């Protein structure tokens, strides 16, 4: 699971119960008791000394650099998800999980060799100075952005401390000229819950792109907005969602559970290392037909939500078997801004099903080719381009039919028809019923989870 836990500000309670505040690895050897550790540390110290004294490039073989090389190798050889984070990487990681950062408020992608602005956040610094969708970024603080530039490097240059300036030049195809802007960065909040709309037969739709610190709040707000529009069923699109914070996943699932109901639990190395995550929703649970869309790119926190709602019969799952990343990474702060992301537990559905390396299987399987999967992902990410001709010009293909979404809609319409038939039969038999439809509730959050576990790695391209 990738990207699934709560509050990743990393100054939080750690499931291991400790903070490590030691810098170079060389200082760690011999600090802890135990013959096995002492023996291992002696061996490592010997290798450190040999390499430091004999390697041909003395600069590469400093004790500090060797210590960091050793830390990377030690942690990252354990599993694909454990990692030693340098201070720069840890800062970017925290920003992604927090769902906010210092930036200019644009979303970019590489298109035909150009770093292209695909979205401008309303009222963000970029919007205020006049950047527009479709602009090609040429330079950032004098750094040339050409076809050889890496998108992540460009995003890092656009981001920075709030109230600092960044000089950006763009080529605007509509004017056939280059424009220059001086932009003052501000705190940018990333929207991870998007695409909210009402489809046929009052079926609501929401897409969650990742699970960051503010995803739960965004989900509740947009779900409430759909409920005000009297939706009678809901599609939650978790396709290609790599996960994120565990507690954010719990918050997204909570509206469908009564207070105290188990949503997910984690089990660590020891029998006593078990932690249950229960709904803290005040009031009644939301009851209505729900369909969840998943594919092979749905991982971590996305699998927590899917597994919880499927396991308890609260949702029908449509699409493909999910990724199967069901491990929990605890964030452990080190000195100088560094951190460990260490696998400390696996998580389980309410009934005790392990998702790790197994994934969640759909009730209704609709498998797409890799090519169609990529096309659908592009389409649902760029619903701002409604003209098929413009879409083809931009991406090189015409929009295709989203068979997974259409199948989910058909399933939900069938559930609605079934409920209607039950109501009719009830009325024919003169039987009393306490409800003639799906009761809708305005939901409010009364408490907030605070944990440090992480189940995935959000992928971002916002600046």
- The assigned structural class equals alpha+beta
Estimated helix fraction: 25-40%
Shape: globular
Q: Ranges with pLDDT <50 over ≥5 residues? A: 1-32, 430-452
Structurally, how many domains make up the residues? 2
CATH superfamily of the largest domain: 2-enoyl-CoA Hydratase, Chain A, domain 1
Tell me the radius of gyration.
25 Å
Total strand segments: 20
Percent of residues in beta strands: 15-25%
Summarize the structure.
The chain is an alpha+beta fold and 463 residues long.
Model description:
- With 463 residues, this protein is of the alpha+beta class.
- The protein has 2 domains: 1-99 and 191-455, Alpha-Beta Complex (2-enoyl-CoA Hydratase, Chain A, domain 1); 100-189, Roll (Pdz3 Domain).
- It is built from 11 helices and 20 strands.
- Strands 1, 13, 14, 17, 18 and 20 form a 6-stranded antiparallel β-sheet that branches. Strands 10-11-12-15-16-19 form a 6-stranded mixed β-sheet, sandwiched between helices.
- Strand 15 (290-294), helix 8 and strand 16 (316-319) form a beta-alpha-beta unit.
């Amino acid at each position: 699971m990738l990207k699934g836990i709560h509050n990743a500000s990393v100054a939080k309670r750690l499931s291991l119960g400790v903070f490590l505040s030691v810098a170079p690895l060389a200082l760690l050897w011999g600090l802890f008791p135990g013959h096995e550790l002492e023996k291992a540390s002696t061996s490592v110290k010997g290798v450190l000394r040999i390499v430091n004294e004999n390697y041909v490039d003395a600069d590469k073989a400093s004790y500090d650099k060797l210590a960091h090389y050793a830390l990377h190798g030690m942690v990252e050889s354990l599993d694909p998800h454990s990692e030693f984070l340098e201070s720069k990487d840890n800062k970017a990681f925290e920003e992604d999980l927090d769902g906010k950062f210092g930036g200019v408020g644009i979303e970019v992608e590489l298109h035909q060799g150009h770093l292209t602005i695909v979205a401008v956040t309303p009222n963000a610094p970029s919007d205020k100075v006049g950047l527009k969708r479709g602009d090609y970024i040429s330079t950032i603080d004098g750094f040339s952005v050409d076809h050889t530039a890496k998108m992540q490097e460009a995003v890092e240059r656009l981001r920075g401390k709030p109230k600092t300036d960044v000089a950006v030049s763009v080529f605007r195809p509509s004017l056939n000229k280059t424009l220059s802007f001086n932009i003052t960065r501000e705190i940018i909040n990333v929207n991870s819950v998007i695409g909210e709309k009402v489809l046929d037969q009052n079926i609501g739709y929401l897409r969650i792109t990742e699970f960051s610190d503010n995803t739960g709040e965004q989900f509740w707000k947009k779900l409430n907005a759909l409920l005000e529009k009297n939706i009678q069923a809901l599609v939650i699109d978790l396709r290609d969602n790599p996960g994120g914070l565990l507690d954010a996943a719990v918050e997204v699932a909570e509206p469908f559970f009564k207070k105290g109901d188990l949503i997910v639990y984690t089990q660590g190395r020891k029998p006593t290392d078990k932690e249950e995550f229960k709904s803290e929703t005040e009031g009644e649970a939301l009851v209505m037909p729900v369909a969840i869309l998943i594919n092979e790119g749905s991982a971590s926190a996305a699998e927590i939500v899917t597994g919880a709602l499927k396991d308890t019969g609260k949702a029908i799952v449509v699409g493909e078997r999910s990724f199967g990343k069901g491990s929990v990474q605890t964030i452990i702060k080190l000195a100088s801004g560094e951190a460990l992301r260490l696998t400390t537990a696996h998580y389980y559905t309410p009934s005790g099903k392990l998702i790790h390396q197994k994934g969640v299987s759909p009730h209704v399987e609709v498998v797409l080719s890799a090519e169609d999967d990529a096309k659908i992902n592009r389409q649902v990410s760029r619903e701002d381009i409604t003209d098929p001709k413009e879409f083809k010009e931009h991406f090189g293909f015409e929009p295709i039919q989203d068979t997974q979404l259409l199948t989910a809609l058909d399933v939900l319409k069938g559930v609605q028809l079934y409920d209607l038939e039950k109501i009719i039969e009830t009325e024919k038999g003169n039987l009393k019923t306490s409800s003639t439809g799906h009761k809708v509730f305005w939901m409010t959050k009364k408490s907030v989870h605070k944990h440090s576990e992480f189940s995935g790695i959000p992928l971002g391209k916002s600046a």
